[in-house]
Amino acid sequence: MADALISASGLRKSFGPTAALRGIDLDVARGEVLAVMGPSGSGKSTLIHCLAGVLAPDEGTVTIDGTDLTSLSADARARFRLERIGFVFQFGQLLPDLSARDNVALPLLMGGARRRAAVATADHWLGRLGLADQAGKSPGDMSGGQAQRVAIARALATEPSVVFADEPTGSLDSLSAETVLEAMLEAARESATTVVLITHDARTAAHADREVIVRDGRLSGAAAVAR
Amino acid sequence: MDKLPALLGLMSDRPTHGYDLKHRYDEVFAAGRPLAFGQLYATIARMLRDGLIVTAGAEVAEGPERKRYEVTDRGREHLRAWLRTPDDPTPALQTNLFAKTVLALMLHDDAEELLDVQRASHLAHMRALTSAKAAAPLLERLAIDHALFQIEADLRWIDLTGARLTDIRKEIHHG
Amino acid sequence: MTAASARLLLLGTAGAARRLAGIVAGVAVAVAMLIVLLGTYLHMPDRDERTAWQVLVGERLETSADGTTTAPDPTTDQMLIASRQDYVHGQLVTVTAAAVSPATDVAFPHGLEPLVPGQFYASPAVADMIDHLPADQFADRYGELVGTLPDAMLRGPDERSVLVGAPWETVASNPNARVQPGFDTVGQRYDVTTYRVILAIGSIAMLVPIVLLISIVSQLGAAQRRERLATVRLIGAGRRAVAGLSALEMGAATAAGAVLGVLAALPLRAVASTLSINGAQSFPADLTPSPAWVIATIAGVTVLGAAVAWWQAYRDDVGAPGASRERAEKRVTGWRVTTLGVGLTLFAGSAWVANTSPAASAAAAVVLIASFAVLTFGIIIAGPWLTRAVSSAYGRVAARASAVVAAGRLTRHPRSTFRSVAGLVAAVFIVSVFAGVVSSVRAITVPSEEPGMLSLDVVLAHADAAHADAMVAAARDADGVERVVVGYRPGDPDAAGVVMDAQDARAIGATAVPDAAAVMVDTFAMLWGTSLDVDAQAPVPEPADGTEGLEPAVVMAVTDGSPAAIERARTALDIAGDRSLAPTSRTDAAAGGAADITQELAVLAYIGMAIAIGISALALAVATIAAALERRRTFGLLRLAGMPVAQLRGVVATEAAVPLASTLVASAGLGFLVAWILVITLGNGLEFTWPDGRYWVALVGSTALAALAVAASFGTVRRSTEIDSTRFE
């Protein structure tokens, strides 16, 4: 692929005797929204963890925006994730004791931003996700959809190169799921952020530009055909 | 369902004659609606005309003389192309895809791949609908939602079928 | 619910085993201390019953107007008894002098042979001193040692006590002597009450960290099994059943801890028996409660543990799944400070009453102790409010991510975060009060040479005409005595002081001596000071007519200042004198005063606090781990998103440090305030000074233990947030 932001080749990863990844090659273009599908236990999570530099693969390389993650130490990879990658999870990622604003400001503060600047950025992103009037609330007082928007604002606030969204709407009802997903992708596309969307739901995957299917630790043959 | 490729698939297993073909078709695909002999012979005539099958000589046994038919290379090519062509999401999809899956398993072809092809095609449809929906007025969105749910139902069935392939294969070869 | 399923739910994990081990250890330590305290409390009266023989209960002798006493003639059914405090090398020795007729029927205690004049019994501690000191410094004062006093006649193994056989006439001339038919066996208990109250408070104070520990550990248990118990709730177990499970678990652990604690009390007893309580160390038996009490303690602590856990689980009901998310606490308000205010008012008020109206002082003392307890409670009640106030201010200025996260939790959970440090805070308060009071007493315990006061190398003995010459001669003969001074009773009976040569007055330390041949000097004031003030005003000598025709009143030996010379002079003066009062130096004035008792209370307080601090540190470690486990998913996901584990440690450390720092400073300050109130209202002009090294050691020690406790949780923080821990979807 000509302008690949993420480029993975020959990824293999085993946990003890279980082979989770059996040789995966995958390129994700800059600004692309890619859906990663596959049944549970297919190696989907392991693939994402390897792509995001959470896990180091046994074999193969992962390059994001020119940085070879597999050559970095665990600490350097954590630093890279903090600065260059955004994460949205299904639930439980917000600290219940902090306001929405502080939750969003958190990764900025961890990156060394000043409190005032971090809060201003947080308010900006909450506003973009339609939560301008909710900034002072705590996640416990919000609906599930609102909480996920806060999580999305947090993932985007550091202006990462790529956002990994792991079933971001998995615990929402259909309508909230749709609006949350649309809000996330709209915000991501406006800032040309690459999104890797992990989902088993076809309607969610249909929001992506392209999908790959992981089965038994490999990308399913059809994915290649579609390319 | 398209009967021609289904019959072609049943014949490509081994040379066979008309009566036997009807029997096997009814067994696998009919689901309570047996194939009429008229329709069978009309289809065989069309396949002979298009060169998909040839007559392989008569089998003399007890009872009436029977013609045996054999699938040609051209017939095999036709069958393969059909198997690999994803169907549009229409009410006929299930029966076609079912036929394809069963035939692929019978012929030891890669059934998973044909399901993947179908899945990719469906997702492409959904993607098109989803991007159309983003710009559509609300009432139109409702219609698109319905279409999306229809396709999603197909996809779920495909996923489930995919997960059951091993069991289906066993049933066809031993059942 | 069957026992098997209960076990599965409660003890199914390694974490649960560790948690229970923490309970067992904490309870064991506290129960060991509790058992010893209880034993001491219970046997406190026995100690004094054993020394009843020292108590004078008989009729006083008749005293005529000119001060001479009239004693009955010796009979076989009566004895004369007198007692005094003797000093030797800064130590106090209780001397009981008994006079009986040669063929007396008076029974000496515990089968001791009746003494004849010139013989004495000594406690083992005194016998030991006699072995190590030359006779002319000590033993000669009493005569011939004929045996040791049995343990049954002593409060403790280090009690310094002698029972001296004296001639009938000698005791008869002592104005303090009593006539009684035998030795008393009942004793008096009034001075024991204070100790028993303090021991009772100490025992209760020992229960506070136990309760805190159990409550915190139950909370950790709740955090760990919230999911599992939620499922139990769903399949039909009631709120009570779940609380019952928790109580069962905690009751079993507490019982095990209590039994271990009873075993641990045995070695602890040996250490504790070396501590001085009410002037004497203890016999191990005095620290050992009866088996019935031990069983009652185990049962009581077990019930307490189960009840705390039950209540904790009942109140913090997990509910069905979905509702199991941790809720924010109810907002704490400034009203929480009122208890503290009430305690402080009561405390200051009762201290003032005790000081101004002696008649009401007994009642005021009870209120004083009660208000002290109210104050301690007030600190624990006000702590969450202070924690919230400080942490919300901190949250506004915090710049680091870990500080923001910690401030958020502290502001929303001030109760549970403060509870994890409450034990330390209460301990620091109590230790601050003791340190403050003790430091001010210490100020007068070490006398120094002061202008106008009696020189420290002078030994003063009261004299009369009959003994004075012999005393002067004996003192002159004593090695190390440089000058012997006689003070005479002035002609004017209302005059304060004795008359002596001006040169003599200067030799014993008087200043501003008028230019006259003879001067009148107030030697009593030179010895004790004009008041108990630390900056005692030295008496001013006045000119006098001369010593001619006056009766001697005091004989003073000016020594070379060496301890041996002082003791030799003291022994010489004593033997030659009338034996009713011990010769005294200004150093002795401090030896048996309030300082000793306050110091020994301080030692007890420091030891108690050390244990309370230890248990509290354990509780803090458990609470920190619980707080981390409660948020393991969120922390895990944050780590996955790139949050360095150091920042997570920062969160956990800040969450302990902020409540600890804010309330520790406040409680230390309050402790000193209380000490200051005590000192200025009750201390007769004592001066409040900064505490000694032990206090700072206790403070630094508890801070270090707290840091250690938090650091101990770092491993759990790291492990529980590994990627594997977040992959349970």
Write the layout of secondary structure elements.
The complex is a heterotrimer of chains A (227), B (175) and C (729).
Chain A (H helix, E strand, L loop, with lengths): L3 E12 L2 E12 L3 E5 L6 H8 L7 E6 L2 E2 L5 H11 E4 L11 H11 L4 H14 L15 H14 L4 E5 L7 H17 L3 E5 L3 H4 L4 E6 L2 E2 L1 H6 L1
Chain B lengths: L2 H10 L3 E2 H13 L6 H13 L3 E7 L6 E6 L1 H12 L8 H14 L4 H25 L2 H37 L1
Antiparallel strand pairs in B: 1-3, 2-3
Chain C lengths: L2 H9 L2 H37 L8 E2 L1 E2 L5 E2 L8 E10 L2 E10 L18 E4 L1 H9 L11 E5 L12 E5 L2 H5 L5 E3 L9 H45 L4 H34 L18 H25 L22 H19 L4 H37 L3 H12 L1 H32 L12 E5 L2 H13 L3 E8 L9 E4 H6 L10 E4 L1 H6 L13 E3 L7 E8 L3 H14 L11 H4 L2 H37 L1 H9 L4 H38 L10 H20 L1 H7 L2 H4 L3
Parallel strand pairs in C: 5-8, 6-7
Antiparallel strand pairs in C: 1-9, 2-3, 4-5, 4-9, 6-8, 10-15, 11-15, 12-13, 13-14
Helix pairs in contact in C: 2-5, 2-6, 2-17, 5-6, 5-7, 5-11, 5-17, 6-7, 8-9, 8-19, 9-10, 9-11, 9-19, 10-19, 11-17, 11-19, 11-20, 12-15, 17-19, 17-20, 19-20
Task: From the 3D structure, determine the CATH topology of chain A.
Answer: Rossmann fold
The chain-level mean pLDDT of chain B equals 83
Distance between the termini of chain B: 24 Å
Estimate the strand proportion of chain A: 25-35%
Number of helices of chain A: 8
Low-pLDDT segments of chain A? 222-227
Q: In CATH's first tier, which class of chain A applies?
A: Alpha Beta
- Give the number of domains of chain A: 1
Helical content band of chain B:
over 70%
Number of separate domains of chain B? 2
